[in-house]
Amino acid sequence: MENSSPSYTALPFKEQLVNGLSQALVNGNADPVLQMIRALPVAIYTCDKNGYVQLYNSAAVELWGREPQPGIDLWCGSFKIFNKDGSEITLDECPMAITLREGKAVEGEEVIIERPDGRRINALPHPIPLFDDAGNLKGAVNMVVDITKKKAADEKLATLAAIVQSSDDAIIGKTLEGIITSWNDAATRIFGYSSEEMIGQPVTLLIPPDRLNEEPGILERLKRGEKVEHFNTVRITRDKRLIDISLTISPIRDEKGHIIGASKIARDITKQKKTESDIKDSELLFKTISSASPAALWMTDANGQNVFVNETWINWTGKPFDHQLTDGWLGSVVQEDRNRVIEKFTESIQNLKQFRSEFRFLRNDGELRWGLSEGYPYNDSSGSFSGYAGSVTDITDLKKLEQRKDDFIKMASHELKTPITSIKGYVQLLLNIYDELNEEKLQAARPTVKSALHTISKQVSKLTRLISELLDLSKIESAKLELNKSEFDLASLVEETVQDLRQTTLRHAILINNSFEGHVYADRDRIAQVLVNLLTNAIKYSPAAESVEVKVSRGAQAAIIRVKDSGIGIDKKDHQKIFERFYRVEGKSEQTYPGFGIGLFIASEIIQRHNGTITVESEKGKGSEFIVTLPLNLR
Ligand code: ADP
């Protein structure tokens, strides 16, 4: 049947080829099959039964890189042949030689053909023996397929597959219907599913229920050929954990450019998100802390340009953050002080040394304040200089205290000198009287002597009081003011102290109103000192009054002493301050009263050390009442 039909289509291609070639060998070069074979893009050649290369097509010449010499080249036209492992195959051991020797086809042995120009080609020879009608071997035909490109493509594919497998990101292939087609190791690591579990499954398995609506949108975009880049979302793992991921999804196209699926790269950004939120948290914390700071805080860049100020500085100056950047903050610094600050800062940044400068700045409410700015260079995490960070402390009160201290020293010298001058004068007077001493004159001088001695005594007690106040001040400052506590009758102490004071007070009556009975446990002398201070102040600051009053009563837990006058009074804003060191109310009327501004400070220290309180109730021009409480039963 087969032989009777000339049809090539009835036979498989290989058999047609063999038949055709056998025919061609008989019919010579003009045979149409031979023409066809010559034109084939696959290398084909024949050998006669002795192995001499007979017929070959141009694809074979191209493959060998040379033209074989008829009657010389045996078995094949190759320059050299090697096994896949690189070992050389001698021509008489080549697949064609084996076919001719053994009279059978040799299939599927890959070889490497080296051309004279050194190029190597991976080839798959298919030598088939040719027999005549009588069954005698008359030669063989060999079709040699160049597989170099395919091999390179296979290798490229293998490399790509290895890259995909070794990626830290999950790389997932899916169809346009969202069915998973590939799944790399990182996908297993990130999502917990193996590739066997996931290939063929819908990708929606990875999407939390509340985000399922994301997928249709993604698929739509892919179908339009769009890429979805760095899409941050949440996915769910095999063990139902929600993880933050960043997705990049690209359409996959076939050779003709048709979109046939999508590749999805998923990066686990849970850690990154955590770091981001940690950074945000720490920024928030920094902001909160810096806003809570009583000092103004600032930061510059490496060029010394301001890049940050905290809320405190913004509140002080009343200028918004944007106004403070670069050198904007200097706008609040008093003109005369600006250059000094700039010079100091320039000097510091040139040497990367501590910066420290005092300047005056205008506060939001129009008040001029003193600021002390201090800053240090800081480095970034890699250790390179990044700028200065520092603070501004409002030192106005400190400056005022310094001023008050200076004033105090001036006044103290004056206050000490005045009684001494007066004493000196009276002593001189007494000496003169003494020098002229006789009975008659002495009698006449008696009133003068008495008055001089009285004045001297007064000035000496004034000096003594001033000196002991100074001593107390230094004791308080060095924390050496000690209390010598004992139990005593408070009413008698008040009585005694007032009696003593009455001796020195001519104008004012000192009234006592006592409803307290019993003992307190305190330093008797120090409480007397407080009382003297309050009463002398009451007398001193109520020159027009005729009396002052001291009232002693019992509170729930404390003895209460009130000293009341109807003098010049104290404005509310000074009620706290008068208990500070060197503080004296400034005003026309006050200036006329001598004083150091330390009496109430010492009194308040003494009372605080007894765990008591000292306060004032007063209004300008309406007299004052000082209230001291002394806790009972503190023994
Ligand atoms: P000073 O030696 O100046 O009196 P103090 O410390 O005793 O110092 O008092 C502080 C300031 O408090 C005084 O300078 C005065 O302005 C004010 N002051 C004290 N007591 C009275 C008072 N009874 N009436 C009015 N002002 C008073």
Textual characterization of the structure:
This protein has 635 residues and is α+β, with helices and mostly antiparallel strands. The protein has 18 helices and 24 strands. Strands 2-1-7-6-5-3-4 form a seven-stranded antiparallel β-sheet. A five-stranded antiparallel β-sheet has the order 9-8-12-11-10, sandwiched between helices. It has a five-stranded antiparallel β-sheet with strand order 14-13-17-16-15, sandwiched between helices. Strand 8 (170-175) and strand 9 (180-183) form a beta hairpin. Helix 1 (13-27) packs across helix 2 and helix 13 runs antiparallel to helix 14 (439-477). Bound molecules: adenosine-5'-diphosphate (ADP). Adenosine-5'-diphosphate (ADP) binds at residues 533, 537-538, 541, 565, 567-570, 578, 583-585, 590, 595-601, 624. Adenosine-5'-diphosphate is lined by residues 533, 537-538, 541, 565, 567-570, 578, 583-585, 590, 595-601, 624.
Topology:
Elements: H1 13-27, H2 32-39, E1 43-48, E2 53-56, H3 58-64, E3 80-83, E4 88-89, H4 95-102, E5 111-114, E6 120-131, E7 137-146, H5 148-166, E8 170-175, E9 180-183, H6 185-191, H7 195-198, H8 214-223, E10 228-236, E11 242-253, E12 259-268, H9 270-292, E13 296-300, E14 306-309, H10 311-317, H11 321-324, H12 335-351, E15 355-362, E16 368-379, E17 385-394, H13 396-435, H14 439-477, E18 485-489, H15 490-504, E19 509-514, E20 519-523, H16 524-540, E21 547-554, E22 558-565, H17 588-591, H18 599-609, E23 613-618, E24 624-631
Parallel strand pairs: 19-21
Antiparallel strand pairs: 1-2, 1-7, 3-4, 3-5, 5-6, 6-7, 8-9, 8-12, 10-11, 11-12, 13-14, 13-17, 15-16, 16-17, 18-20, 21-22, 22-24, 23-24
The structure holds adenosine-5'-diphosphate.
